[in-house]
Specification:
The complex is a heterodimer of chains A (about 500) and B (about 210). By secondary structure, chain A is of the alpha+beta class. Among the domains of chain A are: about 200 residues, no CATH class; about 120 residues, Immunoglobulin-like (Sandwich), CATH 2.60.40.1930. Helices cover about 50% and strands about 15% of the residues of chain A. In chain A, the strands form 4 sheets. A 5-stranded mixed sheet of chain A has the order 7-13-12-9-10. The longest helix of chain A is centred in the middle third of the chain and has 26 residues. Chain A is globular and about 95 Å long. Chain A starts with a helix and ends in an 18-residue tail after the last strand. By secondary structure, chain B is an alpha+beta fold. Chain B has a 5-stranded antiparallel sheet with strand order 2-1-4-5-6, covered by helices on one side. Chain B has a two-stranded antiparallel ribbon with strand order 7-8. In chain B, a hairpin with a 4-residue loop joins β5 and β6. The chains are: A alpha+beta (about 500), B alpha+beta (about 210). The interface between A and B is large, with 102 and 98 residues. β3 of chain A pairs parallel with β3 of chain B, so a sheet runs across the interface.
């Protein structure tokens, strides 16, 4: 009896979770923001449709990567331009909420199609996330408020405190929330599959790459390995927890706040732009009716405080008359067709490959012989210096990674001398010597660095037998010196004016 | 009825997402179909310590080489400052990019399209002022070149080689005399005799069986 009651309770809770009626404020906001974000990525590609997406250019279909040639058709240039223009039109109409359902349906079909046509430079995981979001928005009533559709229907809609807002089941918003959490869970699993994530190496190399847009601080963050490690662990804990706790109360605010910070940092350190914007637009699914009413009350107070009485205006009290649906449809269809025709003609006139230029087609210029010689010298052996990533001296390691870099030591202290190498590498002997200022070897050591390991450390105790003064740790790879680090031992050995907080400066 | 259908749709969608998570976790069927790309969340699953660029060259009948990327009408930079061909790490589509440049330009007859991979350690991407704070050594960047793929002038694949980092990883493992000996022992091999062109050109030449312990 007790068990069946529990089941009934669970069933009711699930029913309330998915089918409670609400005004879809969050989804309406997402409907406005997401297409605007997608337009940022789509507009530069609009000038390259023939090249990127058509059989008259160099499409890069995803299905060929998976061994399914011919799975979907690759359109010719005119069809590609027509469909791409239609997609842009639907992004704008979705944004303003004009024929929202049909616009979203067209977007849900065309957006991933163009992504798949160009797996090299259009399709990314943000394309996939956005496709899911568009499909779920398509099932929702996100166009029922704050939209041209609602205006055409004659509904008074702008102020959440006074509007006559329609209410619908919450399940599309719930599925979007679960999508966000499941994507984070998948991302956490990816990180669990990547041991180099937990040593910070993966993040380090991603911050160094030039494959993404420029970033303002990525290169600087590299100088602080401790920060990278802490962020790595916080990220994976947050990604794992998100799905389970980001539903209500303080946990919701905390999870979403960390998420905003996380996505901001993916721009600041990795140079991602569209992905964080897409994801932040998905966060709008976490906005509920109470949030909107809370914001509306505060906005009203703000307006009453800021605007003088004579400038305050009340919105119309009565609903307008609705526009006839058939006329709205016809206008929409004519606008879409006209824009498509304009797009086709503009693209034809733009002559993207320069075949109709007055001076004739482009000519290929031969490469200089010395450049050809350089590029045709294949697979040269690596220089030892190119096997090395970093060689540092410090005292504290976290997760096996040296997190402080020092050059001044006192007697009795223990130094960690760490060598990090590039991946992949052979089994290596890493020789590390301590040399005094005159070049005499004071101590000779080293370790085997197996191929599956990226770094090795040796510990060195500065005993009282060591005279105060300047020393060098010298790194040898392949039997040759590739790097050296200067240190100072003892009070008398410290150079005048030396910084006590070298942080990362070793010179 | 409508609510039942909706519930079915909700359950189906969540099952689909769940299937993606399970496949991703267990490494099961992840590359079975292009649709899997839409349910597997493996963002930034890979990483490399070398920066890489692809150069697509046309080899003319005269022996001259021509750069087909960037195309004469300009490169497309999808995610930053580097050209589109660099986002095709598996060299699946660069041949078509080369063919496209040939199709719309004037040039001598082209024999083949050659794709060269240029790589260098990513540490050299650090700007000079940060390099000087991070490293004591002078910044001495050197590129390494590797033949990635060869296509016919019509884009037909002739040869595709692994990524340079994969080649390095293979060399690391294969640089082992015992392993090489194991690989060659007990393995049949064949020689091709050009004089037998009109008959079976494949002739078994040796078959060595490992001796029992």
């Amino acid at each position: 009896m007790h068990e069946s009651a529990t089941h009934e309770g669970l069933g009711k809770r699930i029913n309330r979770f998915f089918y409670a009626e609400e005004t879809p404020y969050g989804l309406a906001l997402m409907r406005m923001v997401l297409p605007a974000v997608l337009l940022i990525a789509a507009l530069p590609r609009a000038l390259r449709v023939r090249e990127l997406y058509s059989a008259d250019g160099a499409a890069a279909p995803l299905w060929e990567n998976y061994g399914y040639p011919g799975l979907l058709p690759v359109p010719d240039a005119t069809v590609a331009v027509a469909l791409f223009t239609l997609m842009l039109f639907c992004m704008v109409t979705t944004l303003v909420g004009w024929q929202t359902r049909i616009s979203l349906l067209v977007l849900t079909l065309l957006y991933p199609y163009f992504g798949m046509l160009d797996s090299a430079s259009t399709l990314t995981k943000y394309t996939v996330v956005a496709t899911h979001a568009l499909a779920l928005l398509c099932c929702s009533h996100c166009g029922s408020i704050w939209s041209v559709d609602a205006w055409l229907a004659g509904r008074r809609q702008w102020n959440p405190l006074t509007a006559r807002s329609p209410r619908f089941a919450a399940w599309p918003r719930r599925l979007l929330q679960m999508l966000v959490g499941l994507v984070y869970l998948g991302a956490a699993i990816t990180k669990m599959h990547t041991p180099a994530f937990f040593s910070g190496d993966q993040l380090t190399y991603w911050m160094l790459t030039e494959s993404n847009f420029d970033n303002p601080i990525g290169d600087y963050v590299l100088l602080y390995p401790a920060l990278i490690l802490v962020v790595a662990y916080v990220t994976i804990v947050w990604e794992t927890l998100f799905l389970f706790v980001a539903w209500q109360g303080t946990a919701r605010i905390l999870m979403l706040g960390i998420g905003l910070g996380f996505h901001f940092m993916t721009w600041a350190t990795l140079g991602l732009i569209i992905f964080p914007l897409v994801y932040c637009s998905l966060y709008l699914a976490f906005i509920n009716e109470q949030d909107v009413q809370w914001a509306a009350v505060r906005l009203r107070h703000l307006r009453q405080r800021i605007l003088p009485v004579r400038l305050r205006f009340a919105r119309g009290g009565a609903d307008r008359a609705a526009v006839e649906p058939s006329r709205a449809w016809a206008t929409y269809g004519i606008a879409a067709a006209a824009l498509v025709l304009v797009g086709i003609e503009l693209e034809r006139r733009s002559d993207p490959f320069g075949v109709a230029r007055p001076e004739g087609r482009y000519q290929l210029e031969p490469l200089p012989p010395e450049r050809v010689r350089e590029m045709m010298t294949h697979d040269r052996p690596l220089r030892p210096i190119d096997k090395l990533f970093s060689f540092d001296v410090g005292t504290t390691a976290f997760g096996g990674v040296l997190v402080d870099r020092r050059r001044e030591f006192d007697h009795g202290e223990r130094a960690i001398v760490q060598c990090s190498v590039q991946h992949p590498h052979e089994d290596m002997w890493v020789g590390i010597d301590l040399v005094d200022a005159d070049g005499h070897i004071v101590h000779q050591g080293g370790q085997v660095l197996p191929r599956e390991t990226l770094r090795t450390s040796i510990f060195y105790d500065f005993s009282d037998a060591l005279a105060d003064g300047e020393y060098w740790f010298v790194l040898r790879l392949d039997g040759r010196e590739v790097s050296r680090r200067q240190i100072f031992v003892g009070e008398d050995g410290k150079p005048a004016g030396a910084t006590t907080d070298p942080a990362f400066a070793l010179r | 009825m409508k609510k039942w259908l909706t519930s079915l749709g909700i359950a189906g969608y969540l099952a689909l997402l769940g299937y993606g998570i399970v496949c991703h976790s267990l490494g099961f069927n992840t590359n079975a179909h292009p649709a899997m790309y839409f349910i597997i969340w493996d963002m930034y699953c890979g990483w490399g310590s070398y920066e890489s660029r692809l150069h697509v060259l046309g080899e003319g009948a005269s022996g001259q080489y021509y750069a087909l990327t960037p195309a004469p009408w300009g490169d497309f930079h999808p995610f930053g400052s580097i050209g589109r061909q660099n986002y095709d790490p598996n060299a699946m589509h660069v041949g078509r990019m080369g063919v496209n440049a040939l199709r719309y330009t004037d040039h001598e007859p082209i024999d083949r399209i050659v794709v060269i991979e240029e790589t260098w350690p990513k540490k050299y991407n650090l700007p000079d002022h940060l390099w000087n704070r991070r490293y004591a050594e002078p910044k001495d960047k050197q590129s390494y070149y590797h033949l990635r793929a060869v296509f016919g002038a019509d884009g037909t694949l002739v040869q595709r080689n692994p990524l340079w980092e994969q080649v390095l990883a293979q060399q690391v493992v294969l640089n082992n005399p015992r392993l090489m000996s194991d690989m060659s022992r007990g393995r049949p091999y064949f020689v091709l005799d050009p004089s037998l062109r009109n008959r079976s050109a494949v002739t078994p030449a040796s078959y060595q069986v490992g001796e029992p312990e």
